[in-house]
Every structure is written in C-alpha cells, then in structure tokens.
TrEMBL record:
It comes from the Bacteria. Residues 472-497 are annotated as: Disordered. It comes from Promicromonospora kroppenstedtii. InterPro entries: Ald_DH/histidinol_DH, Ald_DH_C, Ald_DH_N, Aldehyde_DH_dom, Aldehyde_DH_Superfamily. Gene3D superfamilies: Aldehyde Dehydrogenase, Chain A, domain 1, Aldehyde Dehydrogenase, Chain A, domain 2. Pfam families: Aldedh. Keywords: Oxidoreductase. This is Aldehyde dehydrogenase family protein. The lineage of its organism: Bacteria, Bacillati, Actinomycetota, Actinomycetes, Micrococcales. Residues 3-373 form the Aldehyde dehydrogenase domain.
Length: 497
C-alpha cells in the first residue's frame, strides 16, 4: 500500500485511519476563515504545477491537453467555490431556540443546533476525470469544506498523477494551518475496501461502475455501524425529441447529439446513451455526416477498452438493432484502444424485447437512437425503461408549452436529478444550483457530487441543550466568534402562533 501525505509504503490501513481520526479532532475546531484559506491555497498550488500535472495526465489517460487544462481549472474553481461556502458559514445552518418558560407546548429549554462534520471521509477516485473527480476533485473539496479529513483511494488508471496531486495539495493544506493527515492517499484496492470497513471512517464517496459501486455500498451498509455511502454509478441520460423540434432544427439537433456522445470519447457519466425520436424520422445522413468529423480518440485504459468492446458487441448482437454509423476500434501493443463513435437504432418495441442487452450503459462513444410511435406517452416510457438517471433531456418545438408538456417535464423530474429543456447533458456547471445525482441506479443516495449542496453529504446535525457558554462549540456561543449566520427563535414568540 502507498499512503501519502508524506509517502510511506510501510504504513498500514490502521495507521492511515488513525491519522485521519487524529486530524479530525483538530480540523473540526479550525475556524472557517482558516479552512477557506487552505482551500484557496490548494487551488493555487495546483495552478503553479499545472504544466507538470497536465503532462502526466496526458500520458496516463490519453485525454487531450485542452480537455485536461479545462478540467484542472474546474478543479481549482471547485476548491475556491467551497472556500466561499466555508467563509460564508451559512452551510452550518445554525439555529438557536432561546429558553422559554411560557412556550406554548410547555417550558422549552435552551436549544442550539448546527451541522457538524461527520468525520474522516473515504473518497474512491474516478478514472474519467483525473482532476475533477479524483484526488483533489469535488468530493474531496466538499468533505474538506465540511471539516472532514479525506483519505483518497487513488484510481489505478492514473497513479503517478494521483501521487503528485496528493503531495501538492496535502502540502498546501498543512502550510495553511490544517492538521497533518488532513489529506491522505492510498493506492491499493484491498486497502480501500478495508478502510471502508474501518470504524474511524465515517462516510464514503465513489464515482465509477454500477457493479463496483453497489458492492462497496453493501459493504458500507453491512458494517456494525453503517456509514453514509454516496455512489455515482453511471447513467444512460436519455434525450427525448418531439417531431416539432426535429422539424424546426433537425440537422443542428442531430449534430449536437453526435458531439455530446463523442466528447472525450464518450467517457462521461452524462453522455446521452439514448436518443428517442418519432418513428419515420430521417436521421441517418445527419448523424453520419456529423460523426465523420470526429477524430479517433484513445480510451482511458485497457480495462475501459475491454468493457467497451464487450458492451458494444452485446448491443450489436441484440435483435432489432440496426447500425446507423459503424465506429472504429483498434488496439495497440499495450492494450490501449483507439475509437471513433458508433450509432445504432432500434424500435421501441425491439428495445423492450432486448432489455438489459441494450439498456445497460455503454461507457464510450456509443449511443442508441430509439424510434417511438407518434402519440406515445413519453413519461410512461421513461418510467418503464429509464427509471433512474443523472439527467433527462427534452427537446421541444418553439410552441410546445401546453399543460401536456408541463406534465411531461414534471414527470421527468421523478426520474432524474437534472432535467434539461433543450441543450445537452454533457458539461456540468460547478455552481450552487447544480444537482449531479439522481434516483437509483444513478446514485446510491439522494445527494449531489457537484455544486455547493455537495457539502451536505458530509455533515450531520447536533443539538446542545442547556449547555454553559464555555462548553459550546464556537458557532453556537452567544459571542459567535466565527461570525456565522444564525436563525434565532426568541422567547415568547410561540404566543403568536
């Protein structure tokens, strides 16, 4: 096992977990201003080493330099955004109830509640975002902002990058005044599983495959003391298109679809895996023309290539599947695969008949065009075939704003964390209102891994009753030394209820 704040191959799982627990004892007491400064310093440190980190990421992942530089910038923005959240202090949701002998339900004690960090967090890094969902990515940023030390289980697809990122960020955090062990990295798979079951670990986050995520979620739930496990497990992100939308902007819409499927070789959790169009739609020529301009791109690693080849073969072998545009697939001597996008089509009835062979996610530049009979209840189709997704997208015509369309939009919200009206789901804005999580099987719990609400996964409410001032946590004391926003229920207010 490798463990990094300072890299030490001889450290045990217990050493790592106890170091995180010791760091938590100090980190939870650190003033928000100091924690915010530490996050900003970590963002700055990443920028100072950008050339080195991007070059390493290119070698290990095959992703393009422009994509990686944009992703590194996103990672810095995430850290700075959470620094703003921490400094503001509203995330603590502090509530004070003054003691009230005349409370309408009987005498009320002095009650003071705030959200408190859960403790050390284990973060399983993703393969497809070596910066934004890896060592210093969104889950790490949210947990650190909450006041939780983080142990990252590095992804084997980019080990050198993980090691170097951990060294840079851990160093910046300590230099800013956070405890040693606030950020640690382990690289061994067995160590990651063992840490998930260690009593010092109090929550976990995961981004990856449905199979692995469900196994880890079961481990977290089976502990003698079950802990929260937020797993993002993939999504097929259907896009629904009406006849009016196609008539108005068909070629542009189909070109946007091809671009969204093909970006980063389709290795995005928000890639549209299905496009639903009315039967009789002419789409082949536009799809083929747009796909012809997509250059060959390397998949992340040989394991991803194996899975892609296996799933594409399964879909192509299903009854009723027609190839619209065959993609390329070649492997080099190292097992790396180079691909161009593939598009197929199927009728709605044939899709129902094929079941999981076609419905399961294909991670890579592959998508299925589904022809539905005109007049089909699209909300019912989504509920039947696509019940849990990160995103659902609806393309309507300019005049389609009736109550029926409104009911469809509301229904889509039952099956996805983000509903798009036009546009494409790839590209997830790092911003307060973002929801990146959805009903099962997209994620294991109701939460988000992008946006400021992501901090809530690593907090829990604690109330102190009739506590002396000198024993209260800082944000609950009358003098409010952290200067955080608070909601006060004053004595006597219940008389007006």
């Amino acid at each position: 096992m490798t463990a990094t704040a300072a890299s030490a191959p001889d450290r045990t799982v217990d050493d790592v977990a106890r170091t995180a627990a010791a760091a938590f004892a100090g980190l939870a007491q650190v003033a928000p201003a100091t924690r915010a400064d530490a996050l900003r310093r970590a963002a700055a440190a990443l920028g100072e080493h950008a050339d080195e980190l991007v070059a390493t990421a290119q070698v290990e992942t095959g992703l393009a330099e422009a994509r990686l530089r944009g992703e590194l910038k996103r990672t810095q923005v995430q850290l700075r955004l959470f620094a703003h959240v921490v400094a503001d202090g509203a995330y603590l949701d502090v509530r004070l109830d003054e003691a009230d002998p005349d409370f309408v339900l009987g005498p009320r004690p002095d009650l003071r509640r705030a959200l408190w960090p859960v403790g050390p967090v284990l973060n399983f890094a993703a393969s497809n975002f070596p910066f934004a969902f890896s060592v210093a990515g969104g889950d790490t940023a949210a947990a650190l902002a909450a006041g939780c030390p983080v142990i990252v289980k590095g992804h084997p697809g980019h080990p050198w990058l993980s090691e170097r990122t951990a060294q840079i960020v851990a160093g910046a955090l300590v230099e800013a005044g956070l405890p040693e062990g606030t950020l640690q990295l382990v690289t061994d798979q067995d160590a990651g599983v063992a840490l998930l079951e260690h009593p010092s670990v109090r929550a976990a986050a995961f981004t990856g495959s449905q199979r692995v995520g469900q196994l880890l979620a079961a481990r977290a739930a089976a502990r003698p003391d079950p802990v929260p496990f937020f797993g993002e497990l993939g999504s097929v992100n259907p896009v629904l298109v009406t006849a009016a939308a196609l008539e108005e902007r068909g070629d542009a819409l189909l070109a946007g679809y091809v671009a969204s499927v093909s970006g980063s070789a389709g290795q995005l959790c928000t890639k549209p895996g299905f496009l639903l169009v009315p039967d009789g739609t002419a789409y082949d020529d536009a799809v083929v023309a747009a796909a012809a301009d997509v250059p060959e791109h390397r998949l992340l690693n040989p394991s991803i290539a194996d899975g892609y080849e296996r799933r594409v073969s399964a879909v192509l072998g299903a009854d009723g599947v027609r190839v619209v545009r065959p993609g390329g697939f070649r492997r080099d001597a190292d097992g790396q695969a180079w691909v161009t996008p593939t598009f197929v089509s199927v009728s709605l009835d044939a899709l129902r008949g094929a079941g999981e062979a076609v419905l399961d996610e294909v991670f890579g530049p592959f998508s299925v065009i589904v022809e539905y009979p005109r007049g089909t209840d699209l909300a019912a189709v989504v509920g039947e075939l696509f019940p849990g997704n990160l995103t659902l997208t609806l393309h309507l015509g300019a005049g389609e704003t009736s109550a029926d369309q409104g009911a469809l939009v509301s229904a889509l919200g039952e099956h996805a964390g983000r509903v798009l009206l036009s546009g494409w789901p790839t590209g997830v804005a790092v911003t307060p209102a973002m929801q990146h999580g959805g009903p099962s099987p997209a994620t294991t719990t109701d939460g988000t891994s992008v946006g400021t609400a992501a901090i809530g996964r690593f907090l829990r409410g604690v109330t102190f009753q009739d506590a002396p001032q000198e024993l209260l946590p800082a944000p609950l004391r009358d003098d409010n030394p952290w200067d955080v926003p608070r909601t006060v229920s004053p004595r006597g207010a219940s008389a007006e209820w």
